[in-house]
Each structure stands twice: as structure tokens, then as C-alpha cells.
Amino acid sequence: MNNSIQQFNQKLLSLVEHIGLLVIAIATVFAMVGEIAVMLRAMQVTLADLLLLFLYLEILAMVGAYYRSGKLPVRFPLYIGMVALARYLVLDIKNMDDWRMLAVTGSILLLTLAVLLVRIGHVRYPYPNDE
């Protein structure tokens, strides 16, 4: 009885998880199409537009990686954070004071170091197979 309740709960959580991932993927595609429409109307593509499209692609890649492996690589959110901060820097650089600019670039550097540490950790201390 207890085992069947546990299996039901696992299946229910898995279903909710897959629905959430599907919603994220569909919303990302809609946002991407909307951004492309904005670029077409303006007949102009800026670096900020490209970085935003790259963010959308990273989100889709993260969802795809989760579906392929059943795991969420920690690097993907770090990459998304780096690109989001770079986009923020590109958009608001004229309105930023020196300290804010240093804080944003320092944050990008910290995220870059985090990716490096994660990669070194995966190479030196690989995960055992989950089989």
C-alpha cells in the first residue's frame, strides 16, 4: 500500500514537472517569435536583440537537455545569468555609474569562475553512473 502511494506520488510529480517544462518551452517560443516580430517591424537588429534571442535559445537548450538526460546541468543557468547580465550591461551602459558597471562585470566574472569550477569538478570528480 505504502509503495503504491509512493509510486503514484512520483508519477504525479513527474507529470507536473513535464507539464511545467512544456509550458516553459511554449512560452519561450512565443517570446522568441514576439521578439523576432519586433525586429521585423523595426527593420533593425541590435546586439540587445541578439542577446535576448540567445537567452531564449539557452532556455530551450536547457529544457532539451533535461528531456534527454533527466538531469539539469548546473552550467545552463550560469550561462543564462552571464548572458542576461551582459545584455543588461549593453542596454544600460550609458546610464550606469562606475560602481554599478564594476558590479555587473564582477558578477559576470564570478559566474564565469563558477562555470570553470563546475567543469573542473566534473572532470576531476565525475559522477558515478546512476544505474
Describe, in short, the structure shown:
This protein has four helices and no strands.
SSE layout:
Blueprint: H1 2-42, H2 47-69, H3 75-92, H4 98-124
Helix pairs in contact: 1-2, 2-3, 3-4
Describe the structure.
The chain has one domain. Helix content is 83%, strand content 0%. It has helices at 2-42, 47-69, 75-92, 98-124. The longest helix is centred in the N-terminal third of the chain and has 41 residues, at 2-42. It is extended and about 65 Å long.
The helix tally amounts to 4
What Rg, in angstroms, do the CA atoms define? 19 Å
Rounded mean pLDDT score: 90
Structural class: mainly alpha
The biggest beta sheet reads: none
Number of domains: 1
Strand content: under 5%
How many angstroms does the end-to-end distance come to?
26 Å
Strand runs, count = 0
Q: What is the N-to-C order of secondary-structure elements (H for helix, E for strand)?
A: HHHH
List keywords for this structure.
single chain; 131 residues; mainly alpha; extended
